[in-house]
Amino acid sequence: GALAGKAQGIYDALNDEEKEIARRIFVSLVQLGEGTRDTRRRAAIERVMARTDDPKQFRQVIERFTNPGVRLMTMSAVGDEETAEVTHEALFDHWQQLNEWLDKGRDDIRFQRRLDETAQLWDEGHRLDDRLWRGLDVDLLKNFYKRAKSGMNELQIAFYEATIEAEKTVIEAERRRQQEKEAQQQERERQ
Length: 191
Fold this sequence. Notes:
The protein has 191 residues and is mainly alpha-helical. It contains eight helices and five strands. The longest helix is centred in the C-terminal third of the chain and has 37 residues, at 154-190.
């Protein structure tokens, strides 16, 4: 309970923008349990920071929770990549605010993780169109973007934009093909 009290006290002292940043950070540091309890997860800071975040403000929020007197989060570096993780999993059991975020957002959290992994693979694969989403996934992505674009990182938004552009290209090609088919049909009927 003491850790949860510290976390809630720090959170309550944040302004609204900082609270949203804190929510995103902590949610990103939880591995959702599938029929088991949630556990901690290490996350790359650059993949947690949203496109709309002010980097200085983002860093200040992290520092509030990593402060040596608090240490609710631990920072480390793997190569060039800076990562964070929750220091004590007891926080998952006792911090009611965190549990509310997780309970309300499990589907979106899962979807955003899937999006993040796919966008990462797309980026590593030279951003080829064949790695973009199609069909139902595009509809899910559009809906997610409407709900959560302010929490999406640069890469996720780039993936979204490329997916939408590729879909438009496919739709336009299909429209042209259909027009050509109709023109050919009309030409045959005139003969």
